[in-house]
Specification:
- Strands 1, 2, 3, 6, 7 and 9 form a 6-stranded mixed beta sheet that branches.
- The chain is an alpha+beta fold.
- Helix 1 runs antiparallel to helix 5.
- The protein has helices at residues 3-20, 43-51, 158-174, 176-179, 181-198, 220-223, and strands spanning 22-23, 55-79, 82-107, 117-120, 123-128, 131-140, 146-149, 207-211, 224-226.
């Protein structure tokens, strides 16, 4: 078996491994007759196979967040042009709400094309599509909610609890850049893509997998999707 045929078989094995991690259906066709080896550019073939991958899930995070609220009843006013502001006795309300959320990062390769690949000499750079992050679930740990309500105050209402839950979800979304989820997505995508290009003859150090930019807090609203 000659070198070209070995490389072709290696590339096919890597492509099948890549599709194993992806969502979506891939139709496989069997060719009849003898196999012949031709000198072809294998890059378009790999791009075509990558495009058939709807989503490559690259990272999953479980986030625990405690939302706290301290509600103090105060009396404010003025007497004889003198202002006063003091805390009323038995007027405190405090609550601590534990929340659990699940985040998943994935990359959609359906629009992947040669525009996502840059070649400079013997080096190749793969520009990944923008990552997407989904919050697949979020819930309050009702058994461990802690609250203190003074005798002169009413208990927290369902509307207030719902508002605090929304605050917790917003805080989790804001924390995404600091979690390293995009860096993990990039590293895991590289573990799948780099072997495909080394099978084409590139050395591992000649292949770079990167996003088109550094994503910060201002990008989160465009990248986050809610699924629960």
């Amino acid at each position: 078996m000659d070198r070209k045929r070995i490389i072709s078989i290696g590339i096919l094995a890597i492509v099948l491994l890549f599709l194993y991690f992806c969502e979506g259906n891939v139709v496989q066709e069997e060719a009849e007759g003898p196999v012949t080896t031709k000198s072809v550019d294998t890059l378009p073939m790999i791009i075509t196979q990558v495009q058939q991958c709807a989503r490559l899930y690259t990272a999953e995070y479980r986030v625990h967040k405690i939302v706290t609220h301290d509600d103090v009843l105060r009396l404010k006013g003025s007497v004889l042009q003198r202002e006063f502001n003091f805390k009323l006795p038995l007027g405190d309300r405090k609550i601590a709400i534990p929340m659990d959320a699940k985040l998943k990062a994935y990359i959609d390769f359906s629009q992947f094309s040669e525009r996502n690949i840059e070649r400079r000499g013997d080096h190749i750079t793969i520009i990944l599509p923008d990552p997407q992050v989904t919050m697949t679930s979020s819930k309050i740990d009702q058994q461990h909610v802690k609250q203190y309500v003074a005798l002169a105050r009413a208990h927290f209402s369902d509307a207030e609890m719902s508002a605090y839950e929304q605050q917790g979800r917003a805080a989790i979304i804001e924390s995404i850049p600091s979690l390293g989820i995009f860096e993990t997505a990039q590293a895991n995508a590289a573990k799948v893509l780099v072997p495909m290009f080394t099978a084409m003859g590139y050395e591992e150090h000649q292949v770079t997998v990167a996003f088109r930019k550094h994503y910060d807090a201002t990008d989160i609203q465009d990248l986050i999707k809610m699924e629960d």
